[in-house]
Amino acid sequence: MDAIRCGDRADTRLERGDPVPEQTQTLPDVRKSVTVAATPDQCFKVFTERPADWWPPSHILVRKERAGLAFEAGVGGRYYEWDVEGTEIAWGRVLEWVPGRRVAMTWRIDPNWQSIPTDDGASRIEVDFEAVDAEHTRVSLAHVELDRHGPGAERIFRALDGPSPGETLERFAQAVADGAGA
Fold first, then answer.
1. For residue 41, is pLDDT > 90?
2. pTM for the complete prediction?
3. What Rg, from alpha-carbon coordinates, does the chain have?
C-alpha cells in the first residue's frame, strides 16, 4: 500500500492484492436484558417457537395484515413473517443456533425501516439465555454491527437505544409468564 501525503493528511490507497482493512465500528452496540422465571431451555423455546406471542405488532414489514411469524430452526434458517395473502418477508438469517443458550441472526432492515433482500448491509442480533439460578434466566439481546446499515445507521441506533428492544423483551417476559415452554 502506498501513502500519498496531502498537507498533513496521509491518503492511503490499496494496491491489488493488499488485504482490505476491517471497517471501524463507530456506533456502539445496543444491549438490553430481562430476567424471567423460567429455565434457559424454556426461554429459548418461547423465543424461537412462539415469536408471534412476543414480537411487537408494530414491528411489521409485510404490507397487508400479518398472518404469522416464525423461525426456521438451525444455522441458515430464516426468521420471517408472512401476510394473509402468503407474501413472505425475511427479517434475517440464523447465524448461530444453540438451543437453551444462544441464537444469533442477521437483521435486514434499512434506515427507513424497510426490508433489505440480503445480508449485505444487515446488522446482527445476538440473544443469550443465561441461568441466574435454578428458576430464573437472564435473556440478553444485543444489536451489533449497526454501522453495516451504512448512511442512516445513526437513525437506527437512536431508535434501538430507546424503548424498542426493551418493549420487545417486556413482551417476551410476558409470553414466558403466560406459558413458559408451552
1. yes
2. 0.81
3. 19
pLDDT number for residue 165:
59
Query: What is the pLDDT, as a whole number, of residue 1?
Result: 40
Angle between helix 40-49 and 164-179 (nearest 10): 110
CB count, 10 Å around CB of 157?
Answer: 21
CA 1, CA 10: separation in Å to the nearest integer? Answer: 12
Q: C-alpha cell of 148?
A: 453495516
Structural domains in the chain, sorted by start = 29-179 (3.30.530.20)
Burial class (CB in 10 A: 0-12, 13-18, 19+), 103: buried
The residues, ordered by sequence, that sit 6+ positions from 126 with a Cβ below 8 Å of its Cβ are 96, 102, 104, 141, 142, 144
Using the predicted structure, report yes or no on whether residue 140 has a pLDDT greater than 70: yes
The C-alpha atoms of residue 155 and residue 134 are separated, in whole angstroms, by 40
